[in-house]
Amino acid sequence: MPTDEDLLAAIERDPEGGLTQAIDRYGPRLMGRLRRHAFLREYGNADVDDIWQQAFLRLLDPECRAELRAAGGQVLPWLSRWGYWRLDDAAARKAIALPENLTAPDPTESEAAGPPSAMVTTLRRVFPLLSPRQCLILRMRSDEGLEEWEVAERLGISLAAAKKAAHDARERLKELMIRAGINLEDARRDS
Amino acid sequence: MMPEPRDRFDELLRDTFKAGVPDPEFKADDALPEEVPVGLRASIIEVARQFSTRLLAHRLCAAGEGVGWGIEDLASEASGCEGEAKRFLRGEGTPLELEPGHIAKMFFRARFEPNQWATLLFQAVASQAVYSEPSRGQIWGRTSGLSDLLRAERLSGSKPQPRDPAWAERFARAFVDEVLDEWKRLTTGMS
Question: Model pTM?
Answer without folding.
Answer: 0.81
